[in-house]
Design goal:
Number of helices: 2
Helix content: over 70%
Number of strands: 0
Largest sheet: none
Order of helices and strands: HH
Length: 75
């Protein structure tokens, strides 16, 4: 019984670890794109947030339907 519990916990740990790694990779990739297209590599985190807040309303209002949350993810 303890061995089954251990295997279950180990499996959960592995799945959580994989999910964290995938999220970290996605965040790194998106951050790199942000720096590339907004030329934001010289901005602090606070300045980057201020820049994004400035344009968030416009971008969200003009976002093509294929990028809106209610659309299926085509990954």
């Amino acid at each position: 019984m303890e061995q089954e519990d251990f295997k279950l916990r180990q499996s959960n740990y592995y799945e959580n670890r994989q999910a964290r790694k995938a999220r970290s990779r996605r965040l790194i990739q998106k951050g790199a794109l942000l720096e590339k297209y907004f030329q934001a590599d010289n901005l602090s985190v606070e300045q980057t947030e201020e820049l994004l807040k400035t344009f968030a309303g416009y971008v969200n209002a003009h976002k093509p339907n294929k990028f809106k949350n209610d659309q299926p993810n085509n990954n």
